[in-house]
């Protein structure tokens, strides 16, 4: 049944008139399948309007869990090119939560570049959207997003690094950690580089670096 379900869901998705249409297979059988057609974005400097290369972009599709917000169904990461463009490829059909995906976090985006404020973006929710909809693309796909240059204290920069490291989008089980381990580690490595540059006399620096050590321990198979 698991082999047949994605094929049926794809047929349903292709025949749906809008992305907001509910997932019929999910309603009828409890087998909820989701897909994303892929999307692109352009990232520029908010002041100059110039394209920003080497912006790290994170996309996460968050499921409902047994007690509300659950773990990610899909995680993707990418880096902007010389023209500030970034592309996230299509994925699915993929079996996911019978509770659906969280509207606004289907996906949520994080944009990070040293010297700029971390930007967390929720997916705009169309009128009539269903958390069981099959197609889960970015409503803002194709748009140009702006990053503001960072101007603040080391403590302020640590707050932006924390926003990147621990965005509180979803919980992560051991299985999800193992599935997306390479992506989580790539994100952590970028944060660790910035953490090593923090002034040692700032109180928050040591506390933050300690939290990153716990993150690395978890990602390499241990416990936080």
Compute the average pLDDT: 88
Radius of gyration: 19 Å
Extended strand count: 9
Query: What percentage of residues falls in helices of 4 or more residues?
Result: 25-40%
The helix count comes to 6
The CATH architecture can be given as: Sandwich
Shape: globular
Order of helices and strands: HHEEEEEEEEEHHHH
Query: Uncertain segments of ≥5 residues (pLDDT<50)?
Result: 8-20
Superfamily at the CATH H level? Answer: Carboxypeptidase-like, regulatory domain
Distance between the termini: 37 Å
Nutshell version of this structure?
By secondary structure, this protein is an alpha+beta fold. The protein has helices at residues 4-15, 24-29, 154-165, 174-179, 181-196, 203-219; strands at residues 32-36, 39-45, 56-65, 68-79, 85-88, 91-96, 108-112, 119-121, 144-147.
Question: What would you note in describing this structure?
Answer:
With 224 residues, the protein is of the alpha+beta class. The chain has one domain: Carboxypeptidase-like, regulatory domain (Immunoglobulin-like, Sandwich), CATH 2.60.40.1120. The chain contains six helices and nine strands, in the order ααβββββββββαααα. A four-stranded antiparallel sheet has the order 4-3-7-8, with no helix packed on it. Strands 5-2-9 form a three-stranded mixed sheet, with no helix packed on it. A hairpin with a 6-residue loop joins β7 (108-112) and β8 (119-121). α5 runs antiparallel to α6. The longest helix is centred in the last third of the chain and has 17 residues, at 203-219.
